[in-house]
Amino acid sequence: MVTFLPTRPGRLADVPAFDRAIGGAESNVACALARTGHTARWISRVGADGFGDHLVDTIAGHGVDVGHVQRDPHRPTGIYFRTAGERATGVDGEEAGRAEVLYYRAGSAASAMAPALLDRTALDGARIRHLTGITAALSDGCLDVLRTLTRRTPGRPLVSFDVNYRVGLWRAGAHGPEILLDLARGCDLVFVGEDEAEAAWDLHGPEAVREALPEPATLVVKQGSEGATVYDRRADGTDSVTFVPALKVEVVAPVGAGDAFAAGFLSGTLRDLPVPARIRHGHLMAAASLTVPGDLGTPPARALADRLAALDPADWGTLRLGPGWTTDGVRTSRVEVPAP
Q1: What is the DSSP string of 29-74?
Q2: In this structure, are residues 197 and 218 in contact, taking their beta carbons and an 8 Å threshold?
């Protein structure tokens, strides 16, 4: 989608102007992976319009292969508007002050995706296939695409799925939570926020989420500013359980952090790093996103990310990351990174 971010704080009703950016969970992950040295391909549909041109050109500019993006001459590119702040999750009693988010995606080019439109050559050769629950919410055809791509078939790549429960996208009577749980059960690696699990499935705590989702070999439960817990199945069928605390971050905007975390974790997975290092790379990528206004931060150079991910727990706990930390060399906004 094309994203419009307000030029000043306030309600959407009061903001007079917006800055244009790009958004979309899957494209965010693809861009972050490409910028950290991986080969990434984004498969989607956009309108044959100026916004579609902007999306394709911008995503390609991050190094992502967009050669299989379809252009629809009859349907527009999706857009959305949002204010600053945390996104509403739908949990009862949620505090006031959450971001206003308005989607204009009904009838968009992406909503017209269907299994018959999938280009199988575009799916060949991938080591990881990353999907999100947002796509499933757009239309019945999009849901069929997700069901097709999460079906357990011989020779498929590792299938990664970010639940990304969005209350405002699910159509009335669509049973979004049940659909998302069913899709997650067909995947190998699942990301879900602890708050999402509570809102969608009334599950409280990582252990309860794992009990409800025993099928994925790896389950990542994101716990906001506290950290993340990962359940990773061993050869004997039992789980290793790893918790890594999040970094202390000077937050500019809480937008895109979940997608960035997924990209960092997937990067570590592609590099066959140990699970604790994968989680730390997720936290570092999330910090890069949290310290910029839009969805896409500048990822740290791999050498810097590897050095930070290798810190001992005490040094990891002392890091304070602020705007510009990924481009300021060995210094964060407040604390010098220990030398290797």
Answers
A1: HHHHHHHTT---B---EEESSHHHHHHHHHHHHTT-B-TT-EEESS
A2: no
Number of helices (H) and strands (E), helices first, in the chain? Answer: 12, 14
* C-alpha to C-alpha distance for 46 and 110, rounded to whole angstroms: 6
User: Contact at 8 Å (CB) between 68 and 119?
Assistant: yes
For residues 200 and 177, the answer to whether their CB atoms sit within 8 Å is yes
> Which residues participate in catalysis according to the annotation?
259
Instruction: Give the Cα separation of 183 and 129 in Å (integer).
Output: 14
Q: What is the CA radius of gyration of the chain?
A: 19
Question: Hey, what are 101's tokens?
Answer: 């988010």
The Cβ-side half-sphere exposure at 173, using a 13 Å CA radius, reads 1
Q: State which H helix or E strand residue 230 sits in.
A: strand 227-233
- Position 23, amino acid: G
Region of residue 235 (phi > 0: left; psi between -120 and 50: alpha; otherwise: beta): alpha
Q: For residues 296 and 22, is the Cβ–Cβ distance under 8 A?
A: yes
Closest CA to 198 of 220, 221, 219: 221
Q: What is the pLDDT along the chain (340 residues), one digit of tens a residue?
A: 899 988 888 888 898 999 998 889 999 999 999 999 999 999 999 999 999 999 999 999 999 999 999 999 999 999 989 886 655 545 554 454 567 888 888 899 999 999 998 888 888 889 999 999 999 999 999 999 999 999 999 989 999 999 999 887 887 667 999 999 999 999 999 999 999 999 999 999 999 999 999 999 999 999 999 999 999 999 999 999 999 999 999 888 777 899 999 999 999 999 999 999 999 999 999 999 998 876 778 899 999 999 999 999 999 999 999 888 888 644 444 444 555 5
**Within 10 A of 67 (CB to CB), how many other CB atoms are there?**
12
- Please tell me the distance from the alpha carbon of residue 75 to that of residue 15, in angstroms, as a whole number: 28
The separation between CA 170 and the C-alpha centre of its own chain, rounded to angstroms, equals 18
The count of residues in the chain is 340
